[in-house]
Design a protein that fits this description.
Blueprint (H helix, E strand, L loop, with lengths): L6 H5 L13 H6 L11 H25 L12 H27 L5 H21 L7 H22 L4 H23 L4 H21 L18 H28 L5 H22 L6 H7 L3 H31 L7 H26 L5 H16 L4 H23 L12
Helix pairs in contact: 3-4, 3-5, 3-9, 3-12, 4-5, 4-8, 5-6, 6-7, 7-8, 9-10, 9-11, 9-12, 10-12, 10-15, 11-12, 12-13, 13-14, 13-15, 14-15
Keywords: Membrane, Transmembrane, Transmembrane helix
Protein name: Membrane protein
InterPro entries: Low_temperature_requirement_A (IPR010640)
């Protein structure tokens, strides 16, 4: 991931000279300044709007996966079903999180950075449109748009950051994105199984490159960390994405209720979906959710901790989306018989969310409180007996487990001051 660097090292408004030409004022102006506000800008909030649409399309695809033929009859699904939807989600996630890190490093008030954000937003809109058939007739649109975003904005910074060490970081990233572009574009023309494998390879290249800091032989080692961050800014970006994902569950539940008779059982399912969303929100912001920025700032390696926070939010957002898909299944058939895969979605979403929340807690406090793993174990233990029961009852059981975690958190916090961040060393 590259050597650790302080926030000031990587975002200073002073020209830098480390074995290369002095950074020009034009380049320095693109970087966040020391002491500048770290709150997300209106541009970044505007950018997130397209992800409301994209996440809604992901959930719609999950629901189709869980209601199509043999998939609903088994707890395991094939790569050609929900695995495809997972591929799309991971691609969208990578675009969003890199944009968040970019605006944490660069000044989003600069016109050049605004241009990059807005073009990425347009590309993300095309990705959202392509999701519904991304592995069929719109596969080329999805793959080419993804590649254009990654190569285009990385090349932009290679050209723009001449004279700054960050240019070397982007040059390495450009090599990795160029390598992943081959299986992305080739897969768009391949048969289904081959396409899935090629796109999985492309994602593996992208994620591995980012995790390792985009190492490239013979290009030398950059003098700045690829993952240096403005902690408070990045923390709020994750908070906002969590709110966007939770908002998607409300949007999906309300829309689903309108697509059928408004009867007592479906109204009960809507209320239960809302209560579940509130509990997810409450569990997220308990303790660790309030001090992520402080934890990143207090870490000996803020970049590494920021990446751990990214992983925790990946798991939590995936859990929220799976919970949203489960809620839609319940709304569509609240009194029927829960198929195995439905139980997997209704209970698996909260379990995945609690797993991500446990990682999140470890990021802030270097520990995990017992209610989270206990909640996961309870959800796993009750899953087999839930098959065949009314989906509304399964959803109620999931909500009861989340309520237990939330109540346990409230009891622990009662009368105690907010803990200070103590991230792992």
């Amino acid at each position: 991931m590259g050597g650790a660097a302080t926030w000031y090292d990587c975002f200073s408004d002073k020209p830098m000279k480390r074995g290369g030409p002095v950074t020009t004022n034009r380049v320095a102006n693109l970087l966040r300044k020391r002491g500048s506000p770290q709150r997300p800008t209106f541009l970044e909030l505007f950018f997130d709007l397209v992800y409301v649409f994209a996440l809604t399309r992901i959930v719609a695809e999950l629901v189709l996966d869980y209601t199509s033929g043999h998939v609903a009859e088994t707890l395991t699904t094939t790569l050609s079903e929900t695995g495809e939807t997972l591929l799309l989600f991971l691609a969208m996630w990578w675009i969003w999180t890199q944009t968040a890190w970019m605006t944490s490093r660069f000044d989003p008030f600069q016109p050049a950075i605004q241009f990059v954000v807005l073009t990425t937003m347009l590309g993300s809109l095309f990705l959202g449109v392509a999701i519904s058939g991304a592995l069929a007739e719109t596969g080329l649109l999805f793959a080419s748009t993804y590649v254009a975003i990654q190569l285009g904005r990385t090349l932009f910074f290679v050209v723009t950051l001449r004279g700054h060490d960050l240019r070397h970081v982007n040059m390495r990233a450009l090599v990795w994105f160029g390598a992943s572009a081959v299986p992305w574009l080739t897969g768009a023309f391949a048969p289904e199984l081959t396409r899935n494998l090629l796109w999985l390879l492309a994602l593996a290249i992208d994620y591995l490159g980012g995790t390792l800091g985009w190492p490239v032989p013979r290009l030398g080692r950059p003098h700045v960390s690829p993952w240096a961050v403005a902690g408070d800014h990045l923390a709020e970006r994750y908070w906002l994405l969590a709110i966007v994902a939770l908002g998607e569950t409300i949007l999906t539940a309300g829309s689903t209720l309108l697509h059928g008779p408004i009867v007592a059982q479906r109204i009960s399912a809507l209320v239960l979906s809302f209560v579940t969303t509130v509990l997810l929100w409450r569990i997220y912001f308990y303790r660790a959710g309030q001090i992520l920025g402080e934890a990143i700032a207090a870490s000996a390696d803020p970049g590494r901790l920021g990446r751990s926070a990214e992983l925790s939010h990946l798991l939590m957002v995936a859990g929220i989306l799976l919970t949203s898909a489960g809620s839609e299944l319940v709304l569509n058939d609240p009194s029927g018989h829960a198929k195995p895969a439905w139980v997997g979605a209704i209970l698996g979403g909260p379990a995945l969310y609690l797993a991500g929340r446990a990682v999140f807690e470890h990021v802030a406090f270097a520990r995990v409180s017992r209610p989270r793993p206990i909640g996961i174990l309870v959800l796993a233990a009750i899953a087999p007996v839930m098959v065949g029961l009314p989906p509304l009852g399964v959803a109620a059981a999931a909500a009861a487990v989340l309520l237990g975690v939330a109540v346990s958190d409230a009891i622990r916090a009662h009368g105690r001051p907010l803990e200070r961040a103590s991230p792992p060393r």
